[in-house]
Amino acid sequence: MSQTKPTTPTNDTVTNNTVKNDIIKHDTLFTTPLDKAARFSFDEQVVACFPDMIRRSVPGYGQVLAMLPIFARRHCKYRQQDSNGQRVSRVYDLGCSLGAASMALAGEFEPQDLQIKAIDISPAMTTEASALLTENYPAHNIEVITADIRDVEFEQCDMVILNLTLQFLPAADRVAVLEKIYAALSEGGILVLTEKTHAFDEQYDAWLVERYYDFKRANGYTEMEISGKRNALENVLITDTLDEHHTRLAQVGFERHLTWFQFLNFISIVAFK
Question: How far is 167 from 122, CA to CA, in rounded Å?
Fold first, then answer.
């Protein structure tokens, strides 16, 4: 598989490369008190400040993205065909938001190597993602789709990226999504699953949560912003324990899966078909 010279994106370069420099917006969504009934949604306001929000709220996000093309070079083996009958590796970026994972891959591979399908339920996200991907990688085969991943019938693929997405689905729907992913992956393909988690031990979990809030404080968030976002995400973002993730992966058929990355209460797992 041909590829460009490898690079190692940092937290800043990965998130900033997803938007034009003149429209990067500081995350100020929770600088004023909100109605207690208000819930977090991926609307135009979130889209406008999303790169800054991710950079300051998700520890290790840049490192996770930087590893995706490294994984892809090992596991994407031209097992599918594009519409012209050419051998490609098909990759799904599920819950793609502004397409950062798709860009991480496109930046390391030649246009003919990958067929990327980036899917998100938010029209605001997919509209901006489509514009950004077209502008930055016009020659690459990247299709941006507005859809609920629970309703999508996946084609055979070599790699599925599920970054910070499963946690927004109802717990009862998570097994079914993973079953579809497992069925779609070709032998030798991989799933990369990145999630916020909680620990089973309450004391340990409390320590992790407080250190996570320290991380956000160090990145400039105020107590009002931290508590406001926490309240807005209640019953919207529902975490699992690390063991629950591994148990679920085994349940749907993955015989091998390992935690390759952890930063406080954020983890990333690679599961092998």
Answer: 15
